[in-house]
Every structure is written in C-alpha cells, then in structure tokens.
Amino acid sequence: MSKQILQSFPAETPVQPSVRLRKFSRRFGTTNVLDGLDLDIAPGEFVALLGRSGSGKTTLLRTLAGLDAIAEQDVRVPAKRAVVFQDARLLPWKKVWRNVALGLPGNARDAKAKAQAALSEVGLAHRLEAWPLTLSGGESQRTALARALVREPELLLLDEPFASLDALTRIKMHGLVLDLWRAHRPSVLLVTHDVDEAIALADRILVLDKGRIAAEERVALPRQRDAEGRSHGLRRRLLAHLGVETPATAHGDAALLSFPTGEVVS
Amino acid sequence: MALAETITGADRAPALRFPRATWPTLGRWVSPLVLLLLWELGVRSGLIPPRVLAAPSDVLATMWAMTISGELPSNVAVSLGRAAAGLAIGLTFGVILGLTAGLTKTGEAAIDPLMQIKRTIPSLALAPLFIVWFGIGETPKIVLIAIATVFPVYLNTFAGVRGVDKRLVEAARSLGLKGPSLIFHVILPGALPSFFVGLRYAIGISILVLVVAEQINAQAGIGQLINAARDFMRTDIIVVCLIVYALLGLAGDAFVRALERRALAWRPSFVEG
Ligand SMILES: Nc1ncnc2c1ncn2[C@@H]1O[C@H](COP(=O)(O)OP(=O)(O)OP(=O)(O)O)[C@@H](O)[C@H]1O
Ligand SMILES: [Mg+2]
C-alpha cells in the first residue's frame, strides 16, 4: 500500500526532492573523484548506488552525511540524516542500548525507551545490555541500523552495510531493511557492490562512473523480486530449510513444499 | 587416601598423577621454598652471621612484633601517604597535560617539547635541587615522586587520546555529537586503556622514587626504619622493610587491575571471564 503511494510520485520530476545536488565536485589532489555530479532523491525513495571500487561512492555518501566539507557548493540534504557504515562502528565501551541511544535529545529515560523500541524492531530486544564486542557481525549491523533509525532520519545513508556478512544473514538483513523502510519511510541511499542486492531493494539504481551518474535504472518490478530470476522454487525451499523466510511464500506453502507428506514441523 | 593407595600400588607404574593444571603452579613454589629453607639453615648453622642476613623466621617474628607494637603500621602509613600524595599530584598534572596536548594542536606544540626535555633528565637527579629549594622535610619527597610520575601518565594519556579510532569519532559526529559530549562519550573512554598503562608505570615509579626520596633525612616512614636498622645492623628490620616495599608494589598493581576490571569491563579479555 505504501508502495503505491511511492509509485504515484511522478517519477522524473519529484515535487520536493529530499536530496538535491547540482554540479557537485570533489577532488583529492589532482583527481576529480566527483565531477559535476547531479543527484535528486525523492522523499521516501529507495536509491541504490553502484560503481566500481574507487569510483567515489563513499565520497558521495560522506558528502550527503555532512562528514566532509562541501565548500559552498549546491548541496541540499535533510537535517535529519543517519549513516550506517560498512563496519558497524559501535562504541565498544557502551552497552548496546547506550550505543543506540547515543546523542538522542531529551531525558535519559525517554532515550532508553526509544533505544529499546528500535532494538526490538531489529530483533535485538534480548541484547540490550550486551557489550558490542560480544555481538556477531549481523547483530552489530542490526544494532547500527537501530542506531540510525532511532533518530527517525529523513535520509538514511547505507555504505555497503551488508558487505561483510554471510549470504544468509545478508538476505535476512535485506528483508529487515525493507520492513524498516516501509515502516519509517526515509529516503535511502544504499551504496553497494552487489547488483542483486540493488535489484532486490531499490526503486532506482544509479551507476557512478568518472565522477558522475553514468546510468540510471528504474526498477519497476514489485518487491519480493527474485534477484536471480531463475530456480526460485528450489532456492526458496533451500532458504526455508536454512531458516530464511522469503517473503513471497506464505508460511504454510513453504512447509508443504519442504515436507511433501504434509507434515508440519515447527 | 586414594592418592596414597595409588602411590603404594606398585603394580600401577605411572601412579603419581597430579592434575595437569595444578602441577606447574605447584612446581613454581618449589624453588623459592628451597631457597628460603637454605637461607634459614644457613643462618641457624652459623654459616651466615645474623649481622649479614637475619633468618627468615626471625624476619617474620620481627615483622609480627613491629606490627603488634604499631611501629610498622604507623611508618607504612607515612610512606604510603608520601607515595599517594606525590602520585596524586603527578597523575593530576599528567592527565591535564596529556589531555590538553592530545585534544588540541596548540596544546601539543606548547606542552610536548617541554615534556620531552623533562624526560631526558632523570627525575632522581633533581633531588639535590629540590633539597635546596624545599629543604629536607616532606615537600621535596612528594615533589620528587610527583615529577617522576608525571611523564608516564602524560605520555600514555596523550597517546591514548591521539590513538582513539578515527572511525568511531566520525560515527559519533554523524550522530550529532560534538565538543564536550564527543570528548566525554568517545575520546576519554577510548583513551582509557592507554591511560591505565601509564597509571601502572606511575605506581611502580612512585615506589621506586619513594625508596630513594625517603633516604633524604626521613623522620618517619619505611626509609627511616631502614636507616635506623642500618645503624644498628638489624638486618631483620631491613628485610622487613624490603618486604613492605614489595608488598606496596604488589598492592598497587592489584589496585590498577581492579580498577581496570571495572572501567574496561567491555574489553574482550574481560568480557569472557
Ligand atoms: N581522504 C582522501 N584523500 C585522498 N584520496 C581519497 C580520500 N578519500 C577518497 N579518496 C580517493 O577517492 C577515490 C574514491 O574513493 P571512495 O572511497 O569514494 O571510493 P568507493 O567508490 O567508495 O570505493 P569502494 O567501492 O572500494 O569503497 C579513491 O580513488 C580514493 O583513493
Ligand atoms: Mg566505499
């Protein structure tokens, strides 16, 4: 339903873009990493950014995050932004919930309640009091995601947040990110190396090359896309066996597929 | 009983079996105990005159007597007070200077050269100067300890601040932290492990310097006990004082360890245990 709202935006001319860059350039030494780049992201739009290594994806993301100086260039971003880095970057000396609550305005009790709620959303309600160094890679990234979402950002910046996770965890994280995106509706810029990941998640996919957006693809498929486009039945069944819910399949169906005798084991 | 059985049971060849874990730790006590025993026997047999070295049993007896009479505790308290006062001053300055140099470029430019110059002068060599300046009372002793402990605290605090993971700082900035809250939540906790290294050094140095500083005309303290014992050739008292110095060092280490366990509870090495 929310998807329909999004699709009802006129695609080419978003009324009030959430992010707007014009002729943005950024140079390191003598090389222009970003060179006259234009970018618009609509409110609530999920954009994936692909590009080969060193093409400037992180540089662009850091600019949008406000982590680098922009030297009076034409950059418009929402005030409320949050970043999830490739490495979770949790403060190891703060318990999980304090990491999530870090920097939240208001009194401590409200901040804790918000942190708790956000951690529940990412399925970590039971690790509130854990030290970050005891978390698994996936749990760390979910914590980082909770820390970003608890700020109710209008723009969520994800820099290859799943690159270091195993394939299974990554698929679970895709589902989680989509759920959270649907629930909170931030604009999202997801930097990734992974074409399948981009296809699976984004409304629009950009390719960064030679300092500019070199290509743009709109993904018209409904979500729950089978990234591979083949062997979906088997893949789904295997994933179900491994404990990954693929959203296209209802629970009962999956069970029936897995256990031809109709025996439900759960 | 079970043990005796296996030992006497001659048919079972490898009878004597200590659990793997305890045998090496027990083994570590053997050589010190043998040494103590030889020492005791040496003195008892007259091989070592008590004026050269008192027997361990006499040392223990003296220690007990001095404790009962209150002589030892009161003097230990005086020495401990000196070390603590000097250490407190050294810590305070070390931390303030280390943070200032670590957090600001100007601070580094102003402070670091001076500290590096100071480092080249052995602190103990300053004793004569301090005696000229402060006389032979408590002040030169405390100042000497303070001066000697400033550097390790300064250096490790400075390095700790500079060594804080830049990526964490950046992440915290992206969450809106800046200025004092960034320092409080990210930089200080990040510098803490390194600070503790400095603290450990400082405690060790404070006791070392205490030993020397107390030779400056002490009217009370372990140093005074040693001096008096030397004049009367009471080697038992001298050994008692050496034991006290050693115990002070051990206590200091245990103190830092306990602090670390609380303050650095997040570190993997502590997280597990
Ligand atoms: N602070 C910096 N100083 C100098 N050069 C830099 C700096 N940051 C980035 N670069 C250079 O800019 C280029 C783009 O870097 P960037 O990190 O944006 O690439 P990326 O697209 O994110 O690559 P990857 O996919 O490998 O993460 C690289 O050639 C990099 O060496
Ligand atoms: Mg990058």
Please write out the topology.
The complex is a heterodimer of chains A (266) and B (273).
Chain A: H1 2-7, E1 19-28, E2 31-41, E3 46-50, H2 57-65, E4 74-76, E5 81-84, H3 96-101, H4 108-121, H5 137-149, E6 155-159, H6 167-184, E7 187-191, H7 195-201, E8 204-209, E9 212-218, H8 232-241, H9 251-258
Parallel strand pairs in A: 3-7, 3-8, 5-6, 6-7
Antiparallel strand pairs in A: 1-2, 1-4, 8-9
Helix pairs in contact in A: 4-5, 5-6, 8-9
Chain B: H1 2-8, H2 22-44, H3 56-69, H4 71-103, H5 105-120, H6 127-134, H7 138-162, H8 166-174, H9 179-213, H10 222-231, H11 235-263, H12 268-272
Helix pairs in contact in B: 3-11, 4-5, 4-7, 4-9, 4-10, 6-7, 7-9, 9-11, 10-11
The structure holds adenosine-5'-triphosphate and magnesium ion.
Oligomer: heterodimer
Shape of chain A: globular
Rg calc of chain A: 20 Å
Content of β-strand of chain A? 15-25%
Q: Give me the CATH architecture of chain B, please.
A: Orthogonal Bundle
Residue windows where pLDDT falls under 50 for at least 5 positions of chain B: 1-13
Helix content of chain B: over 70%
What's the main sheet of chain A like? 6 strands, mixed
Largest sheet features of chain B = none
Tell me the name of the CATH homologous superfamily of chain A: P-loop containing nucleotide triphosphate hydrolases
- Mind telling me the C-alpha Rg of chain B? 25 Å
Could you name the ranges of chain A where pLDDT drops below 50 across 5 or more consecutive residues? 1-10, 249-266
Give the SSE order of chain A as H and E letters.
Answer: HEEEHEEHHHEHEHEEHH
User: Structural class per helix/strand content of chain A?
Assistant: alpha/beta
Tell me how many strands of chain B there are.
0
Shape of chain B: globular
- The separation of the N and C termini of chain B measures 34 Å
Quick one: CATH class of chain A?
Alpha Beta
Instruction: Provide the list of bound ligands, each named once.
Output: adenosine-5'-triphosphate, magnesium ion
